[in-house]
Amino acid sequence: MCNLEKRGNLFILTLTGDGDEHRLNPTLIDSILLALSQAKSQATPGSALITTSQGKFFSNGFDLNWAQAAGSTEGARDRLHHMVDSFKQVVAELISLPMPTVAAVSGHAAAAGFMLALSHDYVLMRSDRGVLYMSEVDIGLTLPDYFVALVEAKIGSASARRDVLLWGSKLKGVAAVTMGVADAAHDSPEKLHEASVRMGEQLASRKWNGEVYAEIRKSLYPNLRGLLGLPTKVIASPRL
């Protein structure tokens, strides 16, 4: 599950459950979508969102145990497809959210959990613990098209994309920053929290028009936007 807290202009979305892997099953996906909907409905110029987690993991990806509990190969495949389709909406909501977003990756972020972090505008990590890891090449799963588009949109180096997707590199904080996957790494959970709040407050202080911000963000990633089915619109600011 997750909870959403509003602190001034900041929305803090926390994946909850001490020690939990925060596997992205239908329950957690629905909880995240509800939290994002609430943040969107309460957004004002100067809002920002920080997503973080409790425990060792940021998110360990899709809940494959839930899929396998279907009891048959066909049932497991159907459940996996359901999670892929449902999580696509989470990515779409983050890419179109009318405020800046920061992922404070306080632990391991694997597969869809990595994609959850990458769906934010900024990714901050811990340097003392936690990795970013696309496990699909190691466990024998192909990638949804919107995963690939998200990686193409957010990781600028072709060699970094190769290492992430085809080598299954496990990126710790400093390496992720060096490769351009994360924006900063901090050596304790307290420093990560402080840095993410500081960045959120700096972003919020700009008091940007949220709709304009979201449209510009979508325009940065045309292939991803198309795969997510996100419409676009032209907004003329009253400041003009």
What oligomeric assembly is this protein in? single chain
| Top CATH class | Alpha Beta
Find the count of extended strands (DSSP E, 2+ residues). 10
Number of discrete helical segments: 11
Task: Based on Cα principal axes, name the global outline.
Answer: globular
CATH topology, what is it called? 2-enoyl-CoA Hydratase, Chain A, domain 1
Radius of gyration: 17 Å
State the secondary-structure class. alpha/beta
The CATH superfamily bears the name: 2-enoyl-CoA Hydratase, Chain A, domain 1
**Lateral arrangement of strands in the main beta sheet:** 1-2-3-5-7-10
CATH architecture: Alpha-Beta Complex
What is the helix content? 40-55%
Strand content: 15-25%
Please, what is the average pLDDT?
95
Q: Could you walk me through the main structural features you see in this protein, from its secondary elements to its overall organization?
A:
The protein has one domain (2-228): 2-enoyl-CoA Hydratase, Chain A, domain 1 (Alpha-Beta Complex), CATH 3.90.226.10. The protein contains eleven helices and ten strands. With 240 residues, the chain is an alpha/beta fold. It has a six-stranded mixed beta sheet, sandwiched between helices. The protein has a four-stranded mixed beta sheet with strand order 4-6-8-9. Helix 1 (26-42) runs parallel beside helix 3. It has helices spanning 26-42, 64-68, 73-95, 112-118, 136-139, 145-154, 158-165, 173-178, 189-205, 210-220, 222-228; strands at 2-7, 10-15, 48-53, 57-59, 101-105, 108-110, 122-126, 132-133, 170-171, 184-186. The model has no long low-confidence stretch (mean pLDDT 95). Keywords: Lipid metabolism.
